[in-house]
Design goal:
Helix content is 27%, strand content 23%. By secondary structure, it is of the alpha/beta class. It folds into 2 domains: 173 residues, Quinone Oxidoreductase, Chain A, domain 1, CATH 3.90.180.10; 134 residues, 3-Layer(aba) Sandwich (Rossmann fold), CATH 3.40.50.720. Helix 8 links the parallel strand 13 and strand 14.
Length: 337
């Protein structure tokens, strides 16, 4: 099979020919990858040794496809089923896995495989897709589930003033779910207005590019200080910004993945009595909820797809995405040449 293979930190991906995986284990499933999104965390993996990903790995954890092989004891999916893949590889038998909370499994690792034509996963990672959900939208389920998890942790009350810091795919996913969970005004803020249209389509009522007084500008856009702030950038200094913005006794939900040491002003944090809540990954239920929304015909998430490329084009596109571009979500079509 053809795959774009990780060569090590700060090295470009290389398209290689690899053996096709086989479902040799009783609960193994082979998925023929239909679409895979390029995620910002994959870009970080290729630049930062903190992730510890070895050379020779096929990245790509936002993908969907068709089941083409199953192990002897697989019961929940069959050959021919279309599935969205939960990339969290886990034991599958502990209390957390059985509850669909794979990220809490002691043996959990984030898998990949989506940058290849086939991927080997386990049965409990496969979420069957309804017939009405396209293979492209199936590859959006993972990032949309990230946003849903964050919004669920925020416990948004009806009419809440919400600020979303960052207009990337995760910030847009958070905006989408915050609107559907009953938020009042939602203001998305980013360093440029390139994605203002997308943000508004996903549910934002305002879009703010910070000026000389960003706190006052945000408060004006929302009609008051934000009661809930989502950090969806993952860079040094972002948590401090969120604490400065959030209303007293408000919540800061940290979704962005910053891999460098960071600091914030504990005096401001304590005197505001705000809540600082991290959010990582998702549950199996989040995948099903996202698929239900897509099956119902909500087309907003599909708007994030700005380009579809081939495996051969992946190394060049991957490097280009490390710089500021006009792209939002780039999809890989493993079978189109």
């Amino acid at each position: 099979m053809k795959a774009a293979v990780f060569q090590g930190v700060k090295k470009p991906l290389v398209v290689e020919s690899l053996p096709e995986p086989e479902a040799s284990g009783p609960h193994d499933v082979v998925v023929q990858v239909g679409r895979c999104g390029i995620c910002g965390s994959d870009l970080h993996i290729s630049e930062d040794p903190i992730f510890g990903v070895p050379a020779g790995v096929v990245l790509g954890h936002e993908y969907s496809g068709e089941v083409v092989g199953i192990g002897s004891e697989v019961k929940s999916v069959k050959v021919g089923d279309k599935v969205s893949v939960n990339p969290l590889t886990s034991c599958g038998t502990c209390v957390h896995c059985l509850a669909g909370d794979l990220s809490m499994c002691s043996s959990m690792i984030v898998g990949g495989g989506g940058y290849g034509q086939y991927s080997l996963v386990r049965e409990h990672q496969c979420i069957r897709m309804p017939e009405g959900v396209s293979i492209e939208d199936g590859a959006l389920v993972e990032p949309m589930a990230v946003g849903l998890r964050a919004v669920n942790l925020a416990k948004i009350h009806s009419g809440a003033r919400v600020m979303v810091l960052g207009a990337g795919p995760i910030g847009l996913a958070v905006t989408f779910w915050a609107r559907r969970m009953g938020a009042g005004k939602i203001a998305v803020t980013a360093s440029s207005n390139r994605r203002e249209g997308l943000a508004r389509e996903m549910g934002a009522s305002a879009f703010v590019t910070p000026g000389e007084n960003p706190i006052e500008e945000m408060s004006r856009a929302l009609g008051g200080a934000p009661e809930i702030v989502f950090e969806c950038v993952g860079k040094v200094g972002m948590v401090q910004q969120c604490i400065e913005h959030v209303a007293p006794r408000g919540k800061v939900i940290v979704v962005g993945l910053c891999t460098h040491p960071d600091t914030f002003n504990p005096f401001l944090f304590v005197t505001k009595e705000c809540v600082l809540q991290p959010s990582a990954f998702y549950t199996t239920r989040d995948f099903h909820t996202t698929l239900d929304i897509l099956e119902a015909g909500d087309t907003c998430p599909h708007s994030m797809i700005t380009d579809t490329i081939t495996i051969d084009q992946t190394p060049e596109a991957f490097e280009a995405l490390k710089q500021r571009t006009t792209q939002c979500k780039v999809m890989i079509d493993s079978w189109n040449s």
